[in-house]
């Protein structure tokens, strides 16, 4: 078992990201020195929230310039660190070239970070932000898995460069990490595999999270005629940060961890918001039939291809989250709290407006 010294600094790649910002907050509150690697430390708008955290926390933060596609970019930031949190990776459906915009940053970025890990002798543990997308592509994959639900033993075999390239990028990146980890014995690898991450963002105006885009579709009127019952897993961003923290500092942490609290769908997500927000926001109240989606979905939204609709709509999403509860001690926040806190955050920031 690996013992981590909390007196030593830790590196967080992509430190100003959605999940990473909450992780940095937790680390600073624990009195830890955070080496924050970001693409441009001079962009105050994207790091001001991190600086503000450090003012009142017992920990401290140092910023480093780094880029996923530049070899040795993270080596300086890693000096003296026993833990490396690699959270930096693109999460978007708005792309033109999936190889350039998704695959290369995810896979080459992981390789570059771990090449630096191999050079920096102080590193004992790497915590990689992977995804349930490295385990499955469509909801139908979850119920087709052995035992009828996802476990940490399952790998995604259905994504490709042409179909769900984001899921393909996460699969290739995590496999690259495990391959590199297996070639050495000095440091060990733990992966956190979240489902759809929701909850309040600490830097809402400067995030490109797909999680926020889904909430905008639900609450902004795009789905007011009805929401498709797309099977999906949900987890609170604060729980994901907690999982990263425990994965780093619990000596017994090992392997992959499905990090998902609830099995739900788009309609039930909207229904969780109705009691508090239904009077003032155009939230959907009924399901959008699958046959309607098959006709208009591919025309209205490029994400809703016929294959995607067939494999996800009216199909439950199922995953076993017992390992992370048992080994990392994660007690997930209530579903309604996650939904309401996330939605209120977007209202406060003016991203979603009342009807």
From TrEMBL:
<keyword id="KW-0560">Oxidoreductase</keyword>
<dbReference type="InterPro" id="IPR001509">
    <property type="entry name" value="Epimerase_deHydtase"/>
</dbReference>
<dbReference type="InterPro" id="IPR050425">
    <property type="entry name" value="NAD(P)_dehydrat-like"/>
</dbReference>
<dbReference type="GO" id="GO:0016616">
    <property type="term" value="F:oxidoreductase activity, acting on the CH-OH group of donors, NAD or NADP as acceptor"/>
</dbReference>
<feature type="domain" description="NAD-dependent epimerase/dehydratase">
    <location>
        <begin position="10"/>
        <end position="245"/>
    </location>
</feature>
<dbReference type="InterPro" id="IPR036291">
    <property type="entry name" value="NAD(P)-bd_dom_sf"/>
</dbReference>
<protein>
    <submittedName>
        <fullName>Dihydroflavonol-4-reductase</fullName>
    </submittedName>
</protein>
<dbReference type="Pfam" id="PF01370">
    <property type="entry name" value="Epimerase"/>
</dbReference>
């Amino acid at each position: 078992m690996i013992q981590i010294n909390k007196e030593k600094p830790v590196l967080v790649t992509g430190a100003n990201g959605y999940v990473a910002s909450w992780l940095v907050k937790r680390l600073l509150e624990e009195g830890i020195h955070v080496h924050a690697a970001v693409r441009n430390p001079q962009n105050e708008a994207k790091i001001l929230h991190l600086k503000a955290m450090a003012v009142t926390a017992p920990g401290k933060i140092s910023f480093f310039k780094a880029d996923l596609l530049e070899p040795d970019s993270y080596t300086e930031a890693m000096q003296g660190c026993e833990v490396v949190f690699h959270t930096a990776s693109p999460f978007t459906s708005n792309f033109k070239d999936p190889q350039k915009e998704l695959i290369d940053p995810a896979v080459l970025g992981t390789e570059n970070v771990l090449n630096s890990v191999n050079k920096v002798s102080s590193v004992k543990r790497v915590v990689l932000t992977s995804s349930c997308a490295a385990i499955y592509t469509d909801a139908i994959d979850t119920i087709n898995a052995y035992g009828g639900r996802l476990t940490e033993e399952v790998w995604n075999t259905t994504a490709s460069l042409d179909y769900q390239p984001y899921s393909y990028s996460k699969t290739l990146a995590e496999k690259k990490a495990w391959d590199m980890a297996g070639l050495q014995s000095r440091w060990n690898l733990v992966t956190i595999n979240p489902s759809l991450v929701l909850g309040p963002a600490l830097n809402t105006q400067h995030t490109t999270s797909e999680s926020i885009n889904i909430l905008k579709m639900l609450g902004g009127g795009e789905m007011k005629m009805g929401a498709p019952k797309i099977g999906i897993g949900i987890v609170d961003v604060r729980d994901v940060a907690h999982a990263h923290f425990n994965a780093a500092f619990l000596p017994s942490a090992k392997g992959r961890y499905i990090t998902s609290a609830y099995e739900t769908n788009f309609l039930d997500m909207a229904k969780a918001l109705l009691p508090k927000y239904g009077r003032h926001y155009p939230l959907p109240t009924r399901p959008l039939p699958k046959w309607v989606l098959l006709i208009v979905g591919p025309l209205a939204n490029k994400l809703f291809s016929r294959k995607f609709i067939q494999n996800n709509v009216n199909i439950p999403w199922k995953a076993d989250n017992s390992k992370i509860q048992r080994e990392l001690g994660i007690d997930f926040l209530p579903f309604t709290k996650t939904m309401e806190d996330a939605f209120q955050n977007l209202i406060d920031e003016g991203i979603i407006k009342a009807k």
